[in-house]
Structures are given as structure tokens and as C-alpha cells.
Design a protein that fits this description.
two-stranded antiparallel ribbon, Topoisomerase I, Chain A, domain 4, Ribosome-recycling factor
């Protein structure tokens, strides 16, 4: 055993980072519409404004005047076309209608085909969350390698590996459960 101090993996940090991936997934799921208008459905959409990617709610006022309509009152007239383009390219499946600086987003009734499409989008969001969780796991395993090189015993390393894997499995299961719930919500007529 060397004189170097063995630095054990920080499970709290790994947990916090995996929880971050889960909260990001929940925010993305909230943006998926299920037939009703919601201001949160355009939260993940960003606009190229003033040389930076900016959330829509920072370039205009987002309102839900009726159950099937979202409006965005863009503050800077020069950004109206950029906001419109960002919404069209976002994959929300909504065609914006512009009236001066107000962009109206009529929310169409979801048909069976669109519901299936949205479940695939939800699946993509879930896969991104799984990848983020696996990347955190990989960081933990890298920390273990460094600790082994610093003199950590193989038994200790195995215990840490099992704990990191258990943490990962729990978060992946949470992603799968959240996806299953969201897909059921989307397919519900």
C-alpha cells in the first residue's frame, strides 16, 4: 500500500448528478403536450437572440388565454421571425401564427398518429436521460480506477462498484417508470 491518500468515489455527488438528469427528464416530459395548452410546453425551446441561445420566456411574455391556445408577446420586434422559426424547428408539431409581435400557437386535437409520434419523442428524452446517468456512472468508475491505482484493495473496489451500479440501476428504473407513465398519459384519449 502506498503513502498516497486513497480518495473514495463521492456517492453523494454521483447521486446529485443522476438526480439532475432525472429532473431534466421531468422538465422535458412537462413540455410534451397531451392535448391541452400549457406554457411549460415551450420551455425547452430556445431562440438565437443577441448572439446566444435564449429561452422563449426571456424574449417575450408567454400566456395561455384558452385551453387550446398559447400566445407569446415578443418584446423585440426584430426577434419575432426567429421565435417563429425556433418553434417550427422544435419538433412540437405546432404551426405558429403571427399577428404583429404576438405569436399564437393553436394546439390541435391529438390524433392517434400524433400520439404515437409524441411517445417516440418521450422515448428519445428518456434515452438521453439514461445516457446522462450512464455517463455519471462512468465517472464514478473512473474515480474507482484512480483509487485502485492509489492503493485501494480489490475487495473495497468491488464494494464501491456494486454501490455505484446499484445507484445507476435505481435511476435507470426511475427513468423507465417515468417514461411508461408519460406514454400512458399521452395515449390516453
Amino acid at each position: 500500500m502506498s503513502d498516497e491518500e486513497i480518495i473514495e468515489p463521492d456517492l453523494d455527488d454521483l447521486t446529485r448528478r443522476m438526480d439532475g438528469a432525472m429532473s431534466s427528464l421531468k422538465a422535458e416530459f412537462a413540455s410534451l403536450r397531451t392535448g391541452r395548452a400549457s406554457a411549460s410546453m415551450i420551455e425547452p425551446v430556445t431562440v438565437d437572440a443577441y448572439g446566444a441561445q435564449t429561452p422563449i420566456n426571456q424574449v417575450g411574455t408567454v400566456n395561455v388565454p384558452e385551453p387550446r391556445m398559447v400566445t407569446i408577446n415578443v418584446w423585440d420586434k426584430s426577434l419575432v421571425s426567429k421565435v417563429e422559426k425556433a418553434i417550427m424547428e422544435s419538433g412540437l408539431g405546432i404551426n405558429p401564427q403571427t399577428n404583429g409581435t404576438i405569436i399564437m400557437l393553436p394546439i390541435p386535437e391529438l390524433n392517434e398518429e400524433r400520439r404515437r409520434e409524441l411517445t417516440k419523442v418521450a422515448g428519445g428524452y428518456a434515452e438521453n436521460a439514461r445516457v446522462a446517468i450512464r455517463n455519471v456512472r462512468q465517472d464514478g468508475m473512473q474515480q474507482l480506477k484512480k483509487a485502485k491505482n492509489a492503493g485501494m484493495s480489490e475487495d473495497e473496489q468491488k464494494i464501491w462498484q456494486d454501490e455505484i451500479q446499484e445507484l445507476t440501476d435505481g435511476h435507470i428504473k426511475s427513468v423507465d417508470d417515468a417514461l411508461e407513465n408519460k406514454q400512458a398519459e399521452i395515449m390516453q384519449v
